[in-house]
Design goal:
Layout (H helix, E strand, L loop, with lengths): L3 E2 L7 E4 L8 E4 L2 E4 L9 E3 L8 E4 L2 E6 L8 E2 L4 E3 L8
Antiparallel strand pairs: 1-2, 2-5, 3-4, 5-8, 6-7, 7-9
């Protein structure tokens, strides 16, 4: 059974298909990732170490950058990522 969804070979994150608990080992598609924190279903997990300032790659494209170092197996979300896209909406 698949536990995460790898969207592109160049990605440094994967989408969790179910809730992941601390210490859970994901062995799938030639990856082995140990969750270092709880991650809700639909959120992202780091598939490798991501240095502060480095790009967050999803669908093979940079979607933002890390605002802090992100450990392999860590939850990747708004608390440690800043999107690269600026809003075009008027306030």
């Amino acid at each position: 059974m698949r536990e995460v969804l790898f969207l592109h070979a160049d990605d440094n994150i994967a989408v969790c298909l179910g809730d992941v608990v601390v210490g859970h080992v994901i062995s799938q598609d030639d990856h082995e990732i140990i969750a270092v924190g709880a991650i809700p279903r639909g959120h992202k997990i780091a598939t490798r170490f991501i240095e502060k300032g480095a790009g967050i790659i999803k669908y093979g494209e940079r979607m933002g950058h890390a605002t802090t170092d992100i450990a392999k197996g860590a939850h990747v979300h708004t608390h440690n990522v800043l999107g690269d896209r600026l809003s075009t909406e008027q306030a």
